[in-house]
Amino acid sequence: MLIYYLIGVIAFIALIFGAILGYSSIKLKVEADPIVEQIDAILPQSQCGQCGYPGCKPYAQAVANGENITKCIPGGQATVVKIAELMGVDVPSMDCIEEPEPKVAFIIEDLCIGCTKCIAACPVDAIIGTNKAMHTVIADLCTGCELCVAPCPTNCIDMISIKPTAQNWNWKFDPTLIIPSVNTTDIPVQSLIDSQSPLNSQGNKNG
């Protein structure tokens, strides 16, 4: 009987402490900075560390506190422009924004010993393979962060440039391009017919 009593007391105490902790977690909850979340959503989430921070979220926090917005190498100019628009600041001069050269990691099969160190270093799981077996890079997933190069004990990983093709070409619209247009609704139909008439063209030549 005493055992049941002790169990009941312990359960009651646990219930009280649980209620206190639950209330504290709600009452003392620290709201996340919305600007940080918005900046983080713009970043490519490659977690490559090329910006000098351990991941995209820490860099987003630093940017919200005044850090340079041009440090995201994988994001390039497009990311810089989006962050500048979000924060209401001028887009930095394009001369100081280094557009990254698309690269992917390539594993030299004959040198790979299957140590799995590159797999552990890859932030986007673009490398597949097992222990003591040859590894392979999935090019479509690789962000070119180069984090897999340094851990490799046999130097079997090279970063190779991606040659532009119809599939990966950057088809950006040039906003400075002006395409003239004519509002044909303002031109009488008969005038359009006369201008296209072979007789009219011949008459113009003879005249």
TrEMBL record:
* E.C. code: 7.-.-.-
The residues the record assigns to binding [4Fe-4S] cluster 2 are: C112, C115, C118, C152
Detail which positions bind [4Fe-4S] cluster 1: C48, C51, C56, C72
Residues making up the signal peptide according to the UniProt record:
none
User: What does this protein's record comment on cofactor binding?
Assistant: Binds 3 [4Fe-4S] clusters.
State the protein's purpose: Part of a membrane-bound complex that couples electron transfer with translocation of ions across the membrane.
Official protein name in the record: Ion-translocating oxidoreductase complex subunit B
Give me the gene this protein comes from. Answer: rnfB
